[in-house]
Amino acid sequence: MSQKVNDFFEKLWANYLEITPSAQKIHSVLGSGKDIINDHVAFRTFNLPNINLGILAAFFEEMGYQEKGQYTFDAKKLKAKHFEHPNKRLPKVFISELCLEQCSDKLNGIVKTLVSQMDSNVICDSSFLYSGTHWKVSYQDYLDLLNESEYAAWLAAFGFRANHFTVSVNDLEDYSTLAEVNGVLKENQFLLNTSGGEIKGSPEVMLEQSATLADMHEMVFSDQEKKIPGCFYEFAYRYPQKCGELYQGFVAASADKIFESTHSR
Ligand code: NI
């Protein structure tokens, strides 16, 4: 089983690197050649019956993951859950979904046209989670989605894949604070998401997070090619709870800002 899970994450990572070349460079800067432990990986979807959060989660539950937390992001019209594996070296999984019933008819029309192009047999195993798009989307539809929901536009363009991986700063040998990590990233010319400050969260909420701005990707739309923001890399530092164990949850106010790492620069 664990070989199967490791194999899944290797393929997910390879798929992520295809459009996030900066992650490989950051990996070598922070890890200096050593393995890096991931705190979590994140996925986005629409809350349609055939592809909703529960459908994506089922693949992880099959791998031994268990649901551990629920979150709501009212302004962004998102719901999310996080999942943990008994093997603590495996990353947590954060899955969000856009609540379409809260979105405009126009957005619903575009999304339903895209999703109706999906073949139902593409959702048969966990490889679906790094299968990208199963539809053709025009640049104009992308812009119309972007106008209402950056999240919907990203999902329409990039489909099913890791939206980001997250370095566990606690597990880095050469760094002991998130500020140090951010400093080295900036020295190496990586751009950080400054929405809500470079560091989101605090020792009081037991979690600090930062993220790069998403790498720009030359996207082939059905009508033209355009450079748009793709995936980003996140960094998390966790503080111990009263019992001594590191806090393992997520902080909605911080995650809300992290979503903005895929905004246009
Ligand atoms: Ni994250």
Structural features, described:
The protein has 265 residues and is α+β, with helices and mostly antiparallel strands. It has a single domain, classed as 2,3-Dihydroxybiphenyl 1,2-Dioxygenase, domain 1 (Roll), CATH 3.10.180.50. It is built from 8 helices and 10 strands. It has an 8-stranded mixed β-sheet with strand order 2-3-4-1-5-10-7-6, sandwiched between helices. It has a two-stranded antiparallel sheet with strand order 8-9. The chain starts with a helix and ends in a 7-residue tail after the last helix. It binds nickel (II) ion. The site of nickel (II) ion has 7 residues, from strand 1 and strand 5.
For the biggest sheet, the summary is: 8 strands, mixed
What's the CATH topology name? 2,3-Dihydroxybiphenyl 1,2-Dioxygenase, domain 1
Q: Tally the helices: what do you get? A: 8
- In the CATH classification, which architecture applies? Roll
Instruction: Give the overall average pLDDT.
Output: 95
What is the general shape? globular
Structural class designation: alpha+beta
Unreliable residue runs:
none
- Cα(first) to Cα(last) distance is 41 Å
String of helices and strands:
HHEHEEEHHHEHEEEEEH
Strand order in the sheet with the most strands: 2-3-4-1-5-10-7-6
| Helix fraction bin | 25-40%
Kindly provide the radius of gyration, computed on alpha-carbon positions and rounded to a whole number of angstroms: 18 Å
Percent of residues in beta strands = 15-25%
Task: Tell me the total number of β-strands.
Answer: 10
CATH class: Alpha Beta
Give the domain tally: 1
Q: Tell me which ligands are bound.
A: nickel (II) ion
